[in-house]
Specification:
Elements (H helix, E strand, L loop, with lengths): L13 H10 L6 E3 L13 E6 L3 H4 L9 E3 L3 E6 L14 E3 L3 E3 L6 E4 L10 H12 L12
Antiparallel strand pairs: 1-6, 2-4, 2-5, 3-4, 3-7
């Protein structure tokens, strides 16, 4: 049962606060990576960006590759929304909520489209591949600090 404040207004929950924070962004040109025609994104879309030099190293390490976009500087993998929950994506990877690319002059080009109708790369194999390439210990394997 939800508790109400004395004024009758319910306090904001953690989910609401997280969504509000994600809605804030720095000024600049916003470009959203599009889901290709004929595909659906039932879990929403976020993206993981890595410097272009990592792209060809990541691809063979993945059991399934969803939509991948690229330009000269970065490669982006489409992942389900909230794939950053409880994960610290290793630098230099960047997590892009809503599959929004900031300050891009153009939308990066689609370089891989999977068979089927779902655009996602599974986030855990992508996360592990990036941890391996960047020599980063996965979040769940790190010691708990006292």
């Amino acid at each position: 049962m939800a508790m109400r404040a004395a004024s009758g207004i319910r306090p904001l929950g953690l989910d609401t606060l997280v969504r509000l924070q994600r809605g804030m962004h720095a000024p600049g040109t916003l470009r959203r990576l599009p889901v290709p025609d004929g595909m659906t994104a039932p879990l929403g879309c976020d993206a993981v960006a890595v410097p272009a030099r990592f792209g060809p190293l990541v691809l063979p390490r993945l059991p399934r590759v969803g939509c991948v976009y690229a330009d000269d500087a970065h490669w982006w993998w489409i992942v389900p929304s909230d794939s950053d929950y409880a994960l610290d994506w290793p630098a230099p990877a960047r997590y892009a909520t809503g599959a929004v690319v900031l300050d891009a002059p153009d939308v990066p080009g689609l370089i891989h489209r999977p068979d089927g109708t779902v655009p996602y790369t599974p986030p855990i194999p992508l996360y592990l591949a990036l941890c391996r390439l960047t020599d980063t210990t996965p979040t769940w394997s790190r010691p708990v600090s006292a």
